[in-house]
Amino acid sequence: MPGYRVRKVQHAVGGHVYLLRVLSDTQQFADPDGHGERIGISSAQWSLFGQVWPAGLLLAQAMQRFDIEGKRILELGCGIGLASLVLQKRGANVIASDAHPLAEAFLAYNAALNDLPALHYRQLRWDTPLPTLGRFDAIIASDVLYERGHAELIDTVVERHALPLAEVVVADPGRGNSSRFSRMLAARGFGMKARRCPMDETDPPPHRGRMLHYTRGPAA
């Protein structure tokens, strides 16, 4: 027994239904060797990677429409990784990343569950350089600005891993830290377009969710 319980859920994106193994609820916790604790994942945070959150579904839907031609794409904090699975199904050059010790195993299982090739995955802590990861044409993420310090951390990841001509796409459920993050990317030469989106059926206009699309280069 792995020490945690799982269930399977379905999510439709672009006319295709993805079957996903997720944690059964947000009360699950299993860190027998203390790996999660050593890298700063508390017992309260441990289960958060193992769900498909509304912002993650919003990002996956955006990736169904995203121009992937010739682009190397990095997903930050992928968790269950639905957006990366959508990109993989479309034939994109995508690398999924997360710090959670179980994210890679869940991602591999869910790729197989949907008859997809194994995804490229790298364990990535936002506060630790990983030079071998390289640089990307597009960096995508969902709900990664939930703590004040995360704006600075993601900004630093963008500095390390975005090409001079690059895009950053963030699905944000209305966190207050997104404004600070936008100012940081503006200082790095990124223009920004924001689109309000409903996070779920209980989110009436004006919707609290936003798709933030940053572009650096001639099209900015």
UniProtKB/TrEMBL annotation:
<keyword id="KW-0489">Methyltransferase</keyword>
<dbReference type="GO" id="GO:0032259">
    <property type="term" value="P:methylation"/>
</dbReference>
<dbReference type="InterPro" id="IPR019410">
    <property type="entry name" value="Methyltransf_16"/>
</dbReference>
<dbReference type="Pfam" id="PF10294">
    <property type="entry name" value="Methyltransf_16"/>
</dbReference>
<keyword id="KW-0808">Transferase</keyword>
<feature type="region of interest" description="Disordered">
    <location>
        <begin position="196"/>
        <end position="220"/>
    </location>
</feature>
<dbReference type="InterPro" id="IPR029063">
    <property type="entry name" value="SAM-dependent_MTases_sf"/>
</dbReference>
<dbReference type="GO" id="GO:0008168">
    <property type="term" value="F:methyltransferase activity"/>
</dbReference>
<protein>
    <submittedName>
        <fullName>SAM-dependent methyltransferase</fullName>
    </submittedName>
</protein>
